[in-house]
Amino acid sequence: MAHHFFAYLSRMKLIRRWGLMRNIRTENIQEHSLQVAMIAHCLAVVGNQRFGRTLNPERVALLGIYHEASEVITGDLATPIKYFNPKIKQAYKEIEAIANEKLLSMLPDDMRVTYRSLLFPGEADREAEILVKAADRICAWLKCVEELKAGNHEFEKAERSVYARIREMELPEAEYFLAEFAPGYRLTLDELN
Questions:
Q1: Which residues of the chain have pLDDT under 50?
Q2: pTM over 0.90
């Protein structure tokens, strides 16, 4: 019997983000998930090395890789719609869960337990999920910065809003990233060198 889990996940590259906004450069959920995984991993390392935490950076990175997996079935629902009201937010969470169950059904039985823990993180992953959420917001903010840097003023309000949502988390690891790593994203390649 053929299993289609990874074939479905390969379609992440076809799911565009920021669908309600004009983009200078389009972004898909596959590249977004890689960036989230890298930044979430960094936040875990920062948490361990700067703030005395005992996080598993590799686990955090894995959760970042799979945090948008359900969107190969659901598509990307724009944030203003997803969070328009509590009923829509709850309904979308239920749709995501159904999509993740569908993805799990595409794996051999003996592999489902491992991937279930990535698609449905449990209580033991709460701290990791917070870091993934922070990384997700940081990546959204960096996308806004990139678009603004390219002259796309469509992202001005989103940049301010997303930045405020990062700061509202009051997460030391995110604050550290914003202070130490984020400034480089505003530089040109020549300035980075």
A1: none
A2: yes
User: CA 91: distance to chain centroid?
Assistant: 20
- Secondary structure of residue 28 in the 3-state scheme: strand
Please check whether residue 191 lies inside any domain of the structure: no
- Inter-residue contact 165 to 137 (CB < 8 Å): yes
Domain of residue 103: give its range.
5-186
Q: Residue 153: inside a domain, yes or no?
A: yes
Q: What is the CATH number of the domain that holds 62?
A: 1.10.3210.10
CA–CA distance, 47 with 161 (Å, rounded to integer): 25
In a domain, 118, yes or no: yes
Contact residues for 82 (Cβ-Cβ < 8 A; gap 6+): 88, 89, 92
d(CA 103, CA 68): 12
